[in-house]
Specification:
309 residues; alpha/beta; 13% strand; globular
Length: 309
């Protein structure tokens, strides 16, 4: 009976999003990822509202978007400064900001969060917005490691919930992982795919499994590099050089770890270890744990596996 009820409810509610074209976009989180997504969406003609809890954060985010656009202009409009200035002005007209998430959600086709990687905080956020957002509104998370189905469980729109995982820096990286759960309707999934394409990105379809595609391959690769070094089978410098020259990677695993953030890598692998403790790919690293405990997160703190000036 429970299965029958679920299927009927899903079938009824999914009709609300049939053929929806996403134009009004609400992005929650004024950090680097949220601002980057906002920039790309605004530059492709979408009406974007960037939401955060602080006006100061939002002002910084908008200033960052404008600065990023001006860097784009220097390359694309090198010989046409007036056209470049007009481009920046037009894009910025498509971006507004707000500290009122509930009010913004009421007029949004898509609500996309790019906030802290904390399951309860994401669940609480979507649980509140689910009560005020229109029936057609699609919810999506930019999480890189948490199960989409777990985040969606706090809402009543399981069929209108999916994942949109962008990559940093968003304006430069072409890929978007579009994640569907077992409850995501085909209409919702198609809308998210089409939205990604409208942003000028290349979407790939993913299942709701740990790390989706990219991180599911990338994080174990980085962790195995650490273990290789821990066993004394290669210095971090030699491992980085080997992967750059031997595999053609732009960065070695230790350089990449420092760029991503050792705290972020630890958070991901810790979460996966809890979900699947018997999987050796998800085993923790004493070396990584020690560096994170010492506050050495990589480039953002000035030291990780390498030191930065």
């Amino acid at each position: 009976m429970a299965f029958f009820t679920h299927k009927v409810t899903r079938g009824f509610s999914s009709s609300a999003v049939r053929n929806v074209i996403i134009k009004q976009v609400m992005i929650i989180g004024g950090g680097q990822m949220g601002a980057g997504i906002a920039q790309v969406a605004a530059a492709t003609g979408h009406s974007v509202t960037l939401v955060d809890t602080s006006e100061d954060i939002l002002k910084k985010a908008l200033k960052g978007i404008e600065g990023s656009l001006k860097r784009v202009v220097k390359k694309k409009f090198a010989d046409k400064p007036e056209a470049g200035a007009e481009f920046v002005q037009n894009v910025m007209k498509n971006v507004s900001s707000s500290t009122d998430a509930a009010s913004t959600a009421q007029s949004s086709d898509l609500v996309l969060e790019a906030i802290v990687e904390n399951l309860k905080i994401k669940q609480d956020l979507f649980g509140r917005l689910d009560k005020v957002a229109p029936a057609h509104t699609i919810f999506a998370s930019n999480t890189s490691s948490l199960p989409i189905s777990d985040i969606a469980s706090s809402t009543s729109r399981l069929d209108r919930f999916g994942g949109l995982h962008f990559f940093n820096p968003v304006p430069m990286m072409k890929l978007v992982e579009v994640i569907g759960t077992s409850a995501t309707s085909q209409d919702t999934f198609d809308s998210l795919l089409n939205f990604s394409k409208a942003l000028g990105k290349t979407p790939v379809s993913c299942k709701d499994t740990p790390g989706f595609i990219v991180n599911r391959l990338l994080v174990p690769y980085m962790m195995e590099a650490i273990r290789l070094h821990e066993r004394g089978h290669g210095s971090k410098e030699d491992i980085d050089i080997a992967m750059k020259l031997g595999a053609g990677y732009p960065m070695g695993p230790f350089e990449l770890l420092d760029y991503v953030g050792l705290d972020t890598a630890k958070f991901i692998i810790d979460g996966w270890c809890v979900m699947d403790p018997g999987n050796p790919l998800f085993y923790q690293s004493e070396m990584l744990n020690k560096l994170v405990a010492e506050g050495k997160y990589g480039k953002k703190t000035g030291e990780g596996f390498y030191k930065y000036k």
